[in-house]
Amino acid sequence: MKSVLLVLFLIAAVISVNAQMDFKRKVEAGFLKYQYNIVDVDPGPDWKGYNLDNEQNGIDINFIHGLSFKDKFMPAIGLGYLNFEGINGVSMFTDITYLPFETRINPFINLKAGYNHIWNQYENGRGSGLGELGTGIHYKINKNIGGYLQSGFLFTQQSFLIPIRIGVEF
């Protein structure tokens, strides 16, 4: 009986929120400016080097799909392609965006957390967690389309990077 009531409550909540909730997608491209390694390794005889050698800058392209609540809060999931000066990789992450105001030009805060895998000098490549905190400016073109410019801090593959992204939300 409790499970039936829980299901009915969830259905009622979805129906009541449905008018205030939309599916949104984002496509973004970014330049990842290498800053430094956050892990200092004392190399041994079999050490092959840091995951991102020679201070490699990178680019990424992300495809993000999620829910938008009142055009202010968007939890989503994303897939991305990475390229660090010829070293390819993929990423999977959650993406949470919050826009505090309902104006045409709006500042926002963005948080990404997930996992990536690059095919570098290690056998079968190397995977690691990723975390990004960003902020930027969002411009609403119309009710369904917007563009944004974002920057922040990205921690991944034992490195600290500054991402500079441009994206479209639809």
Give a structural overview.
With 170 residues, the protein is mainly β. The chain has one domain (22-169): Porin (Beta Barrel). Helices cover 10% and strands 61% of the residues. The chain contains 1 helix and 8 strands. It has one helix at residues 2-18; strands at residues 21-37, 58-69, 73-84, 87-98, 105-118, 126-140, 146-156, 159-169. The protein has an 8-stranded antiparallel barrel. It is globular. The N and C termini lie far apart (41 Å).
- Report the uncertain regions: none
User: What letter string, H or E per element, gives the SSE order?
Assistant: HEEEEEEEE
Q: Report the portion of residues in β strands.
A: over 45%
Going by helix content, strand content and strand pairing, the class is mainly beta
The counted number of beta strands is 8
CATH topology: Porin
Shape: globular
